[in-house]
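Minutes, project check-in
Item: structure for the 280-residue chain
Input as provided by the requester:
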Amino acid sequence: MFRYVGLGLGLLTRCLQSHRSLLLENLALRQQLAVLKRKHPRPRMGTVDKILWVFARRFWGAWKQSLVLVNPETVVRWHRAGFRLYWSLISKARKQVGRKQLSAEVRELIFRMVRENKTWGAPGIHGELLMLGFDVSERTISRWMKRAPRDPQPAQRWRAFLANHREAIAAMDFFTVPTITFGVLYCFFVIRHDRRRILHFNVTKHPTSCWIIQQLREAFPFGAAPRFLIHDRDAKYGTEVPAAIRSLKINAVRTSFESPWQMVSPSVGWGAAAVSCSTM
């Protein structure tokens, strides 16, 4: 009884459907029947079958009702995989856009002009390059002028200073050590450049300028102060520490901005000092 009722409802539904929908449904069922007839232990959808169902999902609203072999989510996954494949192929085949990359020869020429002609700006260098036959925009020259390497002369002067006054130089600095309770310890030490010897070190949780001044007094007792003391531009020093250094008859030598390499002498670095401090 129920079987005949189901057949009648199905016949009524088919009658109400359009001719186009019936054709699409027949095509979908025939395709799945062809998959089932393939000689495999388990029917599998091939590439052509997946493409057919991806197009059916795109252009046929009732595609889910005729899908039997796989879940609708599987078809959605096929669609997304095809979308990713399509755009990956498009990205690989896309031609390079924008300006051509500046050659190394022109870059070196710009750097040389910046180094040898400090009063020239981007317009001057642009004019010289045009006369030499290089078609480079003024904006490109301005951008590469900012990347020009710094003059090596300051570094050479600094090395000469360290080499000539090594026996009269001391340096001070901080390094931090994290604790097991997620705190931070500030380790302060003073080192001699000539003998790689640590003159003084101490540890605190809250470094202040007064505390640093006391450490300098302990590091340099009467008559033992060096001629030069190198230190960076740490905000913890404030104005009190430089004044205390001058009161000890020491010439304070501050490093340049963003130049941590100046805290390292030719013979010993802060890393070696930290290791020596930890082994004492």
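Outcome recorded: The chain has three domains: 2-93, 104-145, 155-279.
No further action items on this chain.
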